[in-house]
Amino acid sequence: MKFQVNRDVFSDAVSFAVKLLPQRTTLPILSGVLIEAHEGGLTLSSFDYEVSSQTSIAAEVDEPGTILVSGRLLADIANRLPNAPVTFTTEDTRISVSCGSANFSLLSMPVEEYPTLPAPGEQSGVVPGDAFSLAIAQVAVAASRDDVTPVITGVQLEVTENALSLVATDRYRVAVRGIDWDPGTAASTQTLTALVPARTLQEVGKTFGNASTLSVAITGSDDRELIAFQADNKIVTSLLIKGNFPPVKRLFPETVENYAVMNTADLVEATRRVSLVLEREAALRFTFTIDGLTLEAIGSEQAQASESIDALLTGEDTVVSLKPQFLLDGLGAVHSEFVRISFTKTENPNKPGPVLITSQSSKDQPGADSYKYLLQPNLLLR
Amino acid sequence: MSKQDGSGRQVTAEPTDDATATIFHVDMDAFFASVELLERPELRGLPVVVGHRSQRSVVTAATYEARKYGVNSAMPMAIALRKCPHAIILEPHFERYKHYSQQVMSMFDDVTPLVERLGIDEAFLDVRGSLRLLGTPYEIATRLRQRVHAETGLHCSIGIASTKFVAKLASSVAKPDGLLLVPHRETLAFLHPRPISALWGVGGRTEEVLRGYGLATIGDVAAAPLDMLVRAIGAAGGQKIHELAWGRDPRHVTTESEEKSVGHEVTFESNVGDADRIRSELLRLSDQVGRRLRAAGATGRTVVLKLRFGDFETITRSKTLAEPTDLGRRIYEEVRGVYETSGHAGSLSRHPTPLRLVGVRMEQLAFEGSSGGAVGLWDDDADWREAETTMDALRARFGPGSVTSASLLGGSTKRISRGDRDTNGAAQRGASATDAS
């Protein structure tokens, strides 16, 4: 095998292919990147039986062939290569890489043992890359990182006609966002769902943020359900998480009459400052009155803190206890100058009602987007 | 395991004014058996075993005379009687042990406020703050031993060292009725010739692995490269035993020890193979654990199932839950799931191996307020919570037997006479209903 390729194009392709490789793998060959050289150019692939990435790039191929090399090593090398064309040639089990005055010799792993990548199914629909990417970033923050409950480590995608909704939860908060969905000829009245591992989806969001349109294919038989994302000569596939996502959308209130509007940046700053004195896992106390919002932290015996900021309250005075990081995650995701925090009523006297965080384009104008972040306050302990 | 019969005893006979060693490990000698002998002085010097005279019972405690025949605590009574047929068996009297325990512990409190109790018959004391008032550690320990004997008639052994680990080892070497002071500078000379099994945390399996690496003594462990120990038994364990082998043990004597687990277990009168009966026993035990957790204002996050087979092989299987719980029903569902995958039940084994004991335990406890009042948006067990808190209220009003699960009525399982053994935290802290000293 022999080919020559542009250094930047190659480096981008390799870093894409290795991005979703697991940090540790039980089978060494799965840590490799498969490079296939054919007449039209190169195809680079990685696969760990869960997630696969594949991309095609142009190259000058003198002699077709296939090699399998350590992915992270190749990515590190590609990143550091001088600015000159890169040449690959194989000699027996060794691969030599030369670029300008630099030469590397790498060991090839056995190609024949490498698993076949899953083929993406038929397209289910198309989403705008930028909106999808933003929605993922907004929603995935709420996904659980605890593998004890696999179903909530994913982001639930739900397609109904022309809309795609993304939902994630870790039992303490729920984030939801809807975006446009173009089903094309695949239009169906049936609801289509896919539970995608949050980590994978976040990488998908970063990878395809600049794509004008992104093709999504959800396919599968009973025991092997697959989602594929495809744009710009790049494909990412992932197995879906099995199990039923909890019906969290019904936790959102229909209407709320009691709410406060604050400047988002003011609230973020104040929360960060006051929570400095908190002990781990502790919550901040937020008191909303007609005069504004007061944040209070009673940390250890050594330190306490409080701060007041402007807030426009509608309805009754309210006190809630919130974990600062959970609040900051929601505030960081609304992407608007102002933010609305709504207080829901509860029938259970032992449990405060959840608060709802939504965007607000000005003091009295709700935001236009559909992002909602529902957060369960802690018990008021003092 | 160190021998329990007092062979290899080593004591400090000469007064020494070393003040580098201020941590005491005080351990009552054959506590349960000695308490029984207070009532039956005529049996002194004879092999006496405390326990029930039943084939299924285990030895709760044995005097040193009985230990010379190879009788140890926790040994099945049948085996003990084979080893020592003329042993005298005395029924245990737990209320007496408790009484004497309190009496002795209060003497410890007179020596220093820093007393860490380990179950019923041993404690760590840090006497650093008492030196000026009460004299050298050697003097304090000698007087304490005299006082314990004068006021109760019982003997205790005291190990004195600069760390908890070495103090505990010293007391076991000093037994019975001895005192051993290991000055700081002699720590390594004392430690290194001892077998690796004396290291804290090195039991059966770990010992086997380390022996496989050619390590027999604590000195071998000290001389071994750290990365080899880490490879052999993992990062945390390797690091820990290496530190211990060099006499380094950062743990302080702490006065209150939080409970680490809540559990119940039951030994059957005759071995039980029927999986359905095991399941209903698991339900009963889970209920009890849930009740205890709620009473203590605690939740647990890991359920542990313990099965002991007829041949005394014991396995434990655990599962960590998504959410901590204090509900018997949740504990049961999880422990039941663990049981079904344990290989004991299920279609593969139509005639499961009979079990001698089953136990349910909750670990990773969190106490009210420690979570900062965090609650989930939803509670999968809301209905059960209501049912169980209602049952708590009914029991509080009409007595413990007033309500129970319908499936636990009727065909009650026959259990060994003393009923359930409480494996509450005490067992985790080093003591249990068996007397190992």
Q: How are the SSEs placed, and which strands pair?
A:
The complex is a heterodimer of chains A (382) and B (437).
Chain A: E1 2-5, H1 7-19, E2 32-38, E3 41-47, E4 51-57, E5 60-63, E6 65-70, H2 71-80, E7 86-91, E8 94-99, E9 102-107, E10 125-128, H3 129-140, E11 154-160, E12 163-169, E13 173-180, E14 192-197, H4 198-207, E15 213-220, E16 225-231, E17 234-239, E18 259-263, H5 264-274, E19 284-289, E20 292-298, E21 304-309, E22 312-314, E23 318-322, H6 324-334, E24 338-343, E25 355-362, E26 365-366, E27 372-375
Helix pairs in contact in A: 1-2, 3-4, 5-6
Chain B: E1 23-28, H1 31-39, E2 48-50, E3 61-62, H2 64-67, H3 77-83, E4 88-90, H4 94-111, E5 115-118, E6 122-126, H5 131-134, H6 137-152, E7 156-161, H7 164-174, E8 179-181, H8 187-191, H9 204-212, H10 218-223, H11 226-233, H12 235-245, E9 262-272, H13 275-296, E10 298-309, E11 314-325, H14 328-340, E12 355-363, E13 366-367, H15 382-398, E14 421-422
Parallel strand pairs in B: 2-4, 7-8
Antiparallel strand pairs in B: 1-6, 1-7, 2-3, 5-6, 9-12, 9-14, 10-11, 10-12, 10-13
Main sheet summary of chain B = 6 strands, antiparallel
Catalogue the unreliable spans of chain B: 416-437
Task: Report strand % of chain A.
Answer: 35-45%
What percent strand of chain B? Answer: 15-25%
| Number of helical elements of chain B | 15
Report the mean per-residue pLDDT of chain B as an integer. Answer: 83
The major beta sheet of chain A can be summarized as: 10 strands, antiparallel
Shape of chain A: elongated
How widely separated are the two ends of chain B? 12 Å
Query: Which structural category fits the helices and strands of chain B?
Result: alpha+beta
Fraction in helix of chain A: 10-25%
Radius of gyration of chain A: 25 Å
Shape label of chain B: globular
Total helical segments of chain A: 6
